[in-house]
Amino acid sequence: MAKAFFDTEQLISQFEAATTKGSEQLRQAVANTTRQALQGRELTLKNIRATLDTVAQAAGAGVARVPGVDPQGLLDQAVAGMDDALLGAVEAHRVALSRLVDQGADLREKHLKKALADIDKFEDTLFAAVKKAAEGAQQPLAAPWAGVMEKMQAGGTMAGQRASVTAEKLLQDMHEAMRRTRSASVRAALSLAESYTAMVSGVLIGMSDALQSSSQAKPARKKRGDTGG
Q1: CATH architecture, domain defined by 8-184
Q2: Is 220 a residue whose pLDDT tops 80?
Q3: E-strand stretches of the chain
Q4: Measured between alpha carbons, how far is 191 from 187 in angstroms, rounded to an integer?
Q5: 166: how many CB neighbours lie within 10 A of its CB?
Q6: What is the C-alpha separation between 166 and 116, in angstroms, rounded?
Q7: What is the CA radius of gyration of the chain?
Q8: Can the peptide bond before residue 140 be classed as cis, meaning omega within 30 degrees of 0?
């Protein structure tokens, strides 16, 4: 089992208790464990992948310790808990990117474009973790894992659905923010142009008044041959 970023034995024990405490509590336990593991690390796609792989392996080990129950049912709850935790990761990315968009960031910039693309890969990352666990499982868990995988592929995940909506909404928000910025720039330019026009008009009027005053104040030239007295 890969190096864990949480207490794997504690998580495995949750599967042993699931027979008496109910599978919904198991789902919550897996979600909390996954969420805590993600919170303790930088929320990159690489770290998410490593965490999901480890949680999936721990889930398989936990189900193996609970003979006589529905293994696929427990694995379904475990994967649902992982999905719940990924929803939180999607939301964390959404909040961070939304703040940047509000500040005028362009999501087409290289690092932000990658962050947006990574959100769309969360579902694939969960699929990959389950697939890896299924391929490495031995009987009697191989078939239950395969059933979980088939169910996921048919219905998708909540995190995947939320990620698609989030990415689309962020791009819409960015374009709207850019339109508002352009509109504000146009308004500012028009205001400056009007101020400039008024200023120039004032200067011209002032110059005209000054020239007129100067002309009126200038004494008439004497004609040649005129004599005084």
Answers
A1: Orthogonal Bundle (1.10)
A2: no
A3: none
A4: 6
A5: 20
A6: 9
A7: 35
A8: yes
